[in-house]
Design brief:
Number of strands: 0
Number of domains: 1
Oligomer: single chain
Shape: elongated
Distance between the termini: 27 Å
Number of helices: 13
Radius of gyration: 25 Å
Largest sheet: none
Length: 235
């Protein structure tokens, strides 16, 4: 809306100047503020579209995207209070614990560069606690598989898998040693390929990375269903 208004600024002024109206016209200073506001909100448009997607992992992108906003939205002395309030309100409404774990389990963001160095270790500690407190999160055996066969599989487990269960810190260190992937690659596909090497972590990854960053895809689906089901009159 702001972009269209600025693009047609001269036409709007010329049209209104030839008409009788009681509208209060924007001052030159206010037009300048709109220009700065357009620049400030441009990253927000990108992030909004990114977090509203449904065909890719979005939950792990929230905190890196917010960090991007902090870095790209220049704060002037005049706009400092407004921009600071704008970002702090959204930060306060986030489930940072969940989102940090999701980002750590995403091979694109596992270096956690969006956090201060001192805060990164807290995320890995939280993830280690999850591994310690949920030993039953391993992939369940198929229900139709005979119990005797399941016990044989347990005896046939390799040493690395056993150590992953006993030592969550070792499992985390092995995952952290993996190279990060590019932004164009799919983290779910990466976990599908590496699930055997990181069995416990892959279970957590499926849980956390499956969460949507926002309710936009759900609301979009409800709107589409309403347009299909609801009877509407012909124009």
């Amino acid at each position: 809306m702001i972009s269209h208004l600025l693009k047609n600024q001269e036409a709007i002024k010329a049209t209104l100047s030839r008409q009788k109206h009681k509208l209060t016209m924007l001052t030159t200073s206010e037009w300048d503020k709109l220009q700065r506001l357009e620049t400030i909100l441009e990253p927000c448009k990108y992030v909004t579209e990114l977090l509203g997607g449904e065909t890719y992992v979005s939950c792990s992108v929230v905190l890196p995207a917010l960090c991007h906003l902090y870095r790209t939205m220049d704060v002037s002395e005049e706009d400092r209070a407004y921009i600071g309030q704008f970002l702090s309100e959204r930060q306060a409404n986030l489930n940072n614990g969940w989102l940090n774990i999701a980002s750590a389990l995403d091979p694109r963001f596992k270096d956690l560069k969006y956090l201060q160095r001192g805060d990164r270790e807290e995320v890995w500690t939280s993830l280690e606690v999850l591994l310690q407190n949920k030993p039953s999160t391993a992939t369940p055996e198929p229900a139709e598989e005979p119990p005797k066969k399941r016990s044989l599989l347990l005896f046939a487990s390799d040493t690395d898998s056993d150590n992953d269960t006993v030592e969550p810190s070792r499992a985390l260190n092995r995952y952290k040693a993996e190279p990060s992937i590019s932004m164009e690659e799919c983290p779910l596909q990466w976990w599908t390929t590496h699930a055997g090497a990181h069995q416990q972590l892959s279970v957590l990854a499926r849980k956390y990375l499956a969460a949507l960053a926002s309710s936009v895809p759900c609301e979009r689906l409800f709107s589409l269903a309403g347009n299909i089901v609801q009877k509407r009159g012909q124009p």
